[in-house]
Amino acid sequence: MGAVVGTLTMQTKQRRPSRDKTDDELEMTTVCHRPEGLDQLEAQTNFTKQELQILYRGFKNECPSGVVNEETFKHIYAQFFPHGDASMYAHYLFNAFDTTNNGSIKFKDFVTGLSILLRGTLREKLEWTFHLYDINRDGYINREEMTEIVRAIYDMMGKYTYPALKGDVPQQHVDAFFQKMDKNKDGVVTLEEFVIACQEDETMMRSMQLFENVM
Question: Which of 24, 152, 190, 196 is deepest in the core (most CB within 10 A)?
Fold first, then answer.
Protein backbone atom coordinates (compact mmCIF):
# COMPACT_ATOMS: atom_id res chain seq x y z
CA MET A 1 0.00 0.00 0.00
CA GLY A 2 2.99 2.26 0.35
CA ALA A 3 3.07 2.28 -3.44
CA VAL A 4 -0.45 3.65 -3.65
CA VAL A 5 0.23 6.24 -0.97
CA GLY A 6 3.36 7.28 -2.83
CA THR A 7 1.55 8.06 -6.04
CA LEU A 8 -1.24 9.92 -4.25
CA THR A 9 1.07 12.19 -2.28
CA MET A 10 3.47 12.73 -5.17
CA GLN A 11 0.66 13.85 -7.46
CA THR A 12 -0.51 16.23 -4.79
CA LYS A 13 2.92 17.87 -4.57
CA GLN A 14 3.19 18.14 -8.34
CA ARG A 15 -0.27 19.52 -9.08
CA ARG A 16 -1.21 21.70 -6.16
CA PRO A 17 0.26 25.06 -5.07
CA SER A 18 0.31 26.02 -1.41
CA ARG A 19 -3.13 26.53 0.06
CA ASP A 20 -4.52 27.88 3.28
CA LYS A 21 -6.70 26.11 5.82
CA THR A 22 -9.92 27.63 4.46
CA ASP A 23 -9.23 26.23 0.99
CA ASP A 24 -8.53 22.78 2.44
CA GLU A 25 -11.73 22.70 4.46
CA LEU A 26 -13.72 23.96 1.46
CA GLU A 27 -12.27 21.26 -0.78
CA MET A 28 -13.38 18.59 1.66
CA THR A 29 -17.01 19.52 0.91
CA THR A 30 -16.96 19.77 -2.89
CA VAL A 31 -16.82 16.14 -4.03
CA CYS A 32 -19.80 13.97 -4.89
CA HIS A 33 -19.25 11.89 -1.77
CA ARG A 34 -18.48 14.01 1.26
CA PRO A 35 -15.93 12.37 3.58
CA GLU A 36 -15.89 12.66 7.32
CA GLY A 37 -14.65 16.01 8.66
CA LEU A 38 -10.94 16.42 9.19
CA ASP A 39 -11.29 16.77 12.96
CA GLN A 40 -13.24 13.53 13.18
CA LEU A 41 -10.79 11.64 10.97
CA GLU A 42 -7.87 13.00 12.98
CA ALA A 43 -9.49 11.61 16.14
CA GLN A 44 -10.18 8.23 14.52
CA THR A 45 -6.76 7.68 12.92
CA ASN A 46 -3.08 8.15 13.70
CA PHE A 47 -2.68 10.93 11.12
CA THR A 48 -2.45 14.66 11.76
CA LYS A 49 -4.82 17.05 10.08
CA GLN A 50 -2.06 18.21 7.71
CA GLU A 51 -1.30 14.61 6.72
CA LEU A 52 -4.98 13.95 6.11
CA GLN A 53 -5.18 17.01 3.88
CA ILE A 54 -2.25 15.74 1.78
CA LEU A 55 -3.73 12.25 1.53
CA TYR A 56 -7.13 13.64 0.60
CA ARG A 57 -5.79 15.82 -2.21
CA GLY A 58 -4.06 12.81 -3.74
CA PHE A 59 -7.16 10.67 -3.24
CA LYS A 60 -9.33 13.25 -4.97
CA ASN A 61 -6.88 13.64 -7.86
CA GLU A 62 -7.19 9.92 -8.57
CA CYS A 63 -10.89 9.68 -7.71
CA PRO A 64 -12.76 12.97 -8.25
CA SER A 65 -16.06 11.34 -7.25
CA GLY A 66 -14.75 10.72 -3.73
CA VAL A 67 -14.92 6.94 -3.96
CA VAL A 68 -12.69 4.28 -5.54
CA ASN A 69 -14.17 1.31 -7.37
CA GLU A 70 -12.27 -1.93 -7.82
CA GLU A 71 -11.23 -1.33 -11.43
CA THR A 72 -9.68 2.04 -10.56
CA PHE A 73 -7.93 0.51 -7.57
CA LYS A 74 -6.48 -2.27 -9.76
CA HIS A 75 -5.30 0.26 -12.34
CA ILE A 76 -3.46 2.31 -9.70
CA TYR A 77 -1.88 -0.75 -8.13
CA ALA A 78 -0.78 -2.30 -11.44
CA GLN A 79 1.43 0.72 -12.19
CA PHE A 80 3.86 -0.35 -9.48
CA PHE A 81 4.21 -3.97 -10.58
CA PRO A 82 4.74 -3.78 -14.36
CA HIS A 83 6.56 -7.12 -14.53
CA GLY A 84 3.81 -9.13 -12.91
CA ASP A 85 0.04 -9.47 -12.71
CA ALA A 86 -1.25 -7.52 -9.70
CA SER A 87 -4.95 -7.92 -10.48
CA MET A 88 -5.77 -10.73 -8.05
CA TYR A 89 -3.81 -9.30 -5.14
CA ALA A 90 -5.35 -5.88 -5.76
CA HIS A 91 -8.77 -7.58 -5.72
CA TYR A 92 -8.14 -9.09 -2.28
CA LEU A 93 -6.60 -5.88 -0.96
CA PHE A 94 -9.57 -3.87 -2.25
CA ASN A 95 -11.95 -6.18 -0.40
CA ALA A 96 -9.95 -5.74 2.81
CA PHE A 97 -10.36 -1.94 2.58
CA ASP A 98 -14.02 -2.26 1.54
CA THR A 99 -15.18 -3.10 5.04
CA THR A 100 -18.86 -2.48 4.21
CA ASN A 101 -18.69 -4.82 1.20
CA ASN A 102 -20.46 -2.32 -1.07
CA GLY A 103 -17.98 -2.37 -3.95
CA SER A 104 -16.31 0.97 -3.25
CA ILE A 105 -13.72 2.53 -0.97
CA LYS A 106 -14.43 5.94 0.52
CA PHE A 107 -11.70 8.22 1.82
CA LYS A 108 -12.55 7.27 5.39
CA ASP A 109 -12.14 3.57 4.56
CA PHE A 110 -8.80 4.28 2.92
CA VAL A 111 -7.22 6.33 5.71
CA THR A 112 -8.59 4.10 8.47
CA GLY A 113 -6.91 1.05 6.95
CA LEU A 114 -3.78 2.98 6.09
CA SER A 115 -3.51 4.28 9.64
CA ILE A 116 -3.46 0.72 10.95
CA LEU A 117 -0.92 -0.51 8.42
CA LEU A 118 1.48 2.40 8.86
CA ARG A 119 1.05 3.39 12.50
CA GLY A 120 -1.04 0.80 14.24
CA THR A 121 0.14 -1.44 17.06
CA LEU A 122 1.59 -4.84 16.20
CA ARG A 123 -1.69 -6.45 17.26
CA GLU A 124 -3.72 -4.10 15.03
CA LYS A 125 -1.48 -4.80 12.03
CA LEU A 126 -1.73 -8.54 12.53
CA GLU A 127 -5.52 -8.36 12.89
CA TRP A 128 -5.75 -6.37 9.65
CA THR A 129 -3.51 -8.88 7.85
CA PHE A 130 -5.62 -11.76 9.19
CA HIS A 131 -8.75 -10.19 7.72
CA LEU A 132 -6.97 -9.82 4.37
CA TYR A 133 -6.32 -13.58 4.33
CA ASP A 134 -9.82 -14.39 5.59
CA ILE A 135 -11.30 -14.05 2.11
CA ASN A 136 -14.80 -15.32 2.90
CA ARG A 137 -14.92 -13.41 6.20
CA ASP A 138 -15.98 -16.38 8.29
CA GLY A 139 -13.42 -15.66 11.02
CA TYR A 140 -10.97 -18.36 9.97
CA ILE A 141 -8.15 -18.78 7.44
CA ASN A 142 -8.14 -22.10 5.60
CA ARG A 143 -5.43 -23.49 3.36
CA GLU A 144 -7.23 -22.52 0.18
CA GLU A 145 -7.54 -18.89 1.25
CA MET A 146 -3.91 -18.59 2.27
CA THR A 147 -2.79 -20.31 -0.94
CA GLU A 148 -4.79 -17.84 -3.04
CA ILE A 149 -3.23 -14.82 -1.32
CA VAL A 150 0.33 -16.18 -1.43
CA ARG A 151 -0.01 -17.14 -5.09
CA ALA A 152 -1.46 -13.71 -5.90
CA ILE A 153 1.60 -12.10 -4.30
CA TYR A 154 3.97 -14.20 -6.38
CA ASP A 155 1.99 -13.44 -9.54
CA MET A 156 2.24 -9.74 -8.73
CA MET A 157 6.01 -9.83 -8.19
CA GLY A 158 6.45 -11.56 -11.56
CA LYS A 159 9.92 -12.42 -12.80
CA TYR A 160 11.53 -10.47 -9.97
CA THR A 161 10.36 -13.00 -7.40
CA TYR A 162 13.38 -14.24 -5.46
CA PRO A 163 14.19 -17.06 -5.30
CA ALA A 164 12.87 -17.93 -8.75
CA LEU A 165 9.35 -19.24 -8.34
CA LYS A 166 8.63 -22.88 -8.93
CA GLY A 167 5.12 -24.20 -9.20
CA ASP A 168 4.98 -25.69 -5.71
CA VAL A 169 6.62 -22.82 -3.81
CA PRO A 170 3.39 -21.06 -2.73
CA GLN A 171 2.01 -24.35 -1.43
CA GLN A 172 5.24 -25.03 0.45
CA HIS A 173 4.96 -21.66 2.17
CA VAL A 174 1.33 -22.33 3.07
CA ASP A 175 2.20 -25.76 4.48
CA ALA A 176 4.96 -24.20 6.61
CA PHE A 177 2.64 -21.47 7.88
CA PHE A 178 -0.11 -23.92 8.78
CA GLN A 179 2.26 -26.25 10.57
CA LYS A 180 3.19 -23.41 12.93
CA MET A 181 -0.16 -21.62 13.13
CA ASP A 182 -2.77 -24.37 13.27
CA LYS A 183 -2.05 -25.41 16.84
CA ASN A 184 -5.03 -27.73 17.28
CA LYS A 185 -4.71 -29.23 13.78
CA ASP A 186 -8.34 -28.60 12.85
CA GLY A 187 -7.48 -27.38 9.34
CA VAL A 188 -8.16 -23.68 9.95
CA VAL A 189 -6.33 -20.80 11.64
CA THR A 190 -8.15 -18.55 14.08
CA LEU A 191 -7.26 -14.94 14.74
CA GLU A 192 -5.64 -15.83 18.06
CA GLU A 193 -3.62 -18.67 16.52
CA PHE A 194 -2.46 -16.31 13.78
CA VAL A 195 -1.44 -13.54 16.19
CA ILE A 196 0.30 -15.85 18.65
CA ALA A 197 2.24 -17.68 15.92
CA CYS A 198 3.47 -14.42 14.41
CA GLN A 199 4.44 -12.99 17.80
CA GLU A 200 6.29 -16.13 18.90
CA ASP A 201 8.18 -16.88 15.68
CA GLU A 202 10.52 -14.20 14.27
CA THR A 203 10.79 -16.00 10.93
CA MET A 204 7.02 -16.13 10.65
CA MET A 205 6.81 -12.47 11.56
CA ARG A 206 9.34 -11.49 8.90
CA SER A 207 7.39 -13.48 6.31
CA MET A 208 4.14 -11.77 7.20
CA GLN A 209 5.84 -8.36 7.20
CA LEU A 210 7.24 -9.13 3.74
CA PHE A 211 3.75 -9.80 2.47
CA GLU A 212 2.49 -6.67 4.27
CA ASN A 213 5.11 -4.53 2.51
CA VAL A 214 3.41 -5.08 -0.86
CA MET A 215 0.30 -3.40 0.51
Answer: 152
